[in-house]
């Protein structure tokens, strides 16, 4: 595939912005998937290639949040179990079905989150001092994380919103810790998805790695911002990104 200077700049720029968005909210793949398809990739190849950047940005985010002690390691395994099971199901579906099948689910989830944040924002952004629940105390969290895993394994765009709804909405993590655990979940099912895509020879590595340079830089910057930002600022960033994601889903083909 021709990698002209214009395409390289496009991938680096969209990757950088997507890395910030995905680390603090979700929906960054609404930028990177079209960027890859502009290069002439079919939707399934772009979907697979996009995961390279997502994988590396997730590792970057996890390292940053872990250094700041914002990842609750005791909760990682219980949270990952339903997410990984869903990720296996979703990634298998992704190899044989068009990504457009889950557009209504994505749109419904994002519009629903927008409404919730307007009417009762404390559901997504718990008050300071809220003690998180354990996953075995909230069966609804297991179901929500499984759905997030299926969607994330199927198509990356917008999965962060579903994970935030599961982690903050049902388990009551604050937004910083929610984003930290979200990155762990994303890394887990992206690793599974990439394995399936490699098996089916659906990844174009040069564009994928070029994109990942931007996503890694964006994620690194976003972690620093998240650790210093006021919780209200993070909440409003999430709200704006949810609106943008909803608009992108509505306008996409």
TrEMBL record:
<comment type="similarity">
    <text>Belongs to the 4-toluene sulfonate uptake permease (TSUP) (TC 2.A.102) family.</text>
</comment>
<keyword id="KW-0812">Transmembrane</keyword>
<keyword id="KW-0472">Membrane</keyword>
<feature type="transmembrane region" description="Helical">
    <location>
        <begin position="180"/>
        <end position="199"/>
    </location>
</feature>
<dbReference type="InterPro" id="IPR002781">
    <property type="entry name" value="TM_pro_TauE-like"/>
</dbReference>
<keyword id="KW-1133">Transmembrane helix</keyword>
<feature type="transmembrane region" description="Helical">
    <location>
        <begin position="104"/>
        <end position="123"/>
    </location>
</feature>
<keyword id="KW-0813">Transport</keyword>
<feature type="transmembrane region" description="Helical">
    <location>
        <begin position="143"/>
        <end position="168"/>
    </location>
</feature>
<dbReference type="InterPro" id="IPR052017">
    <property type="entry name" value="TSUP"/>
</dbReference>
<feature type="transmembrane region" description="Helical">
    <location>
        <begin position="234"/>
        <end position="252"/>
    </location>
</feature>
<feature type="transmembrane region" description="Helical">
    <location>
        <begin position="7"/>
        <end position="27"/>
    </location>
</feature>
<dbReference type="Pfam" id="PF01925">
    <property type="entry name" value="TauE"/>
</dbReference>
<protein>
    <recommendedName>
        <fullName>Probable membrane transporter protein</fullName>
    </recommendedName>
</protein>
<keyword id="KW-1003">Cell membrane</keyword>
<feature type="transmembrane region" description="Helical">
    <location>
        <begin position="76"/>
        <end position="97"/>
    </location>
</feature>
<feature type="transmembrane region" description="Helical">
    <location>
        <begin position="205"/>
        <end position="227"/>
    </location>
</feature>
């Amino acid at each position: 595939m021709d990698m002209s200077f214009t395409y390289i700049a496009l991938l680096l720029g969209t990757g950088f912005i997507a890395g910030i968005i995905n680390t603090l909210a979700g929906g960054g793949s609404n930028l990177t998937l079209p960027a890859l398809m502009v290069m002439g990739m079919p939707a399934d190849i772009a979907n697979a290639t996009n995961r390279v950047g997502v994988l590396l940005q997730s590792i970057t985010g996890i390292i940053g949040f872990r250094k700041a002690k914002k990842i609750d390691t005791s909760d990682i395994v219980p949270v990952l179990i339903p997410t990984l099971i869903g990720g296996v199901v979703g990634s298998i579906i992704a190899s044989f079905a068009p990504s457009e099948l889950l557009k209504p689910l994505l749109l419904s989830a994002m519009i629903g989150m927008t409404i919730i944040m307007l009417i009762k924002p404390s559901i997504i952004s718990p008050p300071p001092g809220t003690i998180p629940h354990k996953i075995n105390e909230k069966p609804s969290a297991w179901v929500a994380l499984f759905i997030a895993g299926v969607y994330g394994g199927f198509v990356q765009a917008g999965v962060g919103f579903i994970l935030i709804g599961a982690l903050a909405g049902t388990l009551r993590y604050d937004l910083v810790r929610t984003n930290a655990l979200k990155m762990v979940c994303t890394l887990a099912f992206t690793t599974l998805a990439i394995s399936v895509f490699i098996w089916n020879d659906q990844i174009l590595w040069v564009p994928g790695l070029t994109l990942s340079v931007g996503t890694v830089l964006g994620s690194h910057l976003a972690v620093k911002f998240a650790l210093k930002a006021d919780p209200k600022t993070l909440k409003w960033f999430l709200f704006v990104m949810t609106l943008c994601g909803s608009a992108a889903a509505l306008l996409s083909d």
